[in-house]
Design goal:
Blueprint: H1 15-47, H2 57-87, E1 94-101, E2 104-109, E3 115-119, E4 141-144, E5 148-155, E6 160-164, E7 169-173, E8 179-184, E9 189-195, E10 207-213, H3 215-224
Helix pairs in contact: 1-2
Amino acid sequence: MANHSQLNFQDASSPIMEELMGFHDHALMVALAICCLVLYLLTHMITGKLSSNTVNAQVIEIVWTILPAMVLITLALPSLRILYMMDEINEPDLTLKAIGHQWYWTYEYTDLKELTFDSYMIPTADLPLGHFRLLEVDHRVIVPMSSTVRVIVTADDVLHSWAVPSLGVKTDAIPGRLNQTSFLASRPGVFYGQCSEICGANHSFMPIVVESTPLANFESWSSLSPS
């Protein structure tokens, strides 16, 4: 999860988030190169001797037409690649349905004998020592590590958004509509998120907690959980 004064992203916990962080760094390098070029030209114009002699206007027009096009291509191609990767869902190992309510989440493991539970934020007065305020819930989403999980997201009342930054997942929950996304947790751990769509007075109090465990632990948990 994020720390105080953190300037960068959270540590990536899925292949998609690693790709997103790589594209972010790539875009920043392109922006840095553009800024350096503009700064150099401004400095040269301010400090250099003014002259009425310029290079051929056709050459200038060709340069300032081709260069921006090349910059856009270097940004568009990696972006499109990641967009297609995020939309691709091939034979998921587990399907999870997340239903947004005011102001809690309901989860359904449709592959596991209709395992269903509600997930509420733990009030500050009841929070165990060492847990995170406004982020911990009474029932976590447990998923197997290194397995493709498809998440079907919808809402029961108003707009919500199911978002877990470290997994690179953010999908709107819309009443009457099913949206889907997927993720693969590449390491065990606990990953925190929150509703990212303003949904009413208690919008800030419906966190999301995803716990990634080895497959054996997941199977033990699913067999002990009430249906």
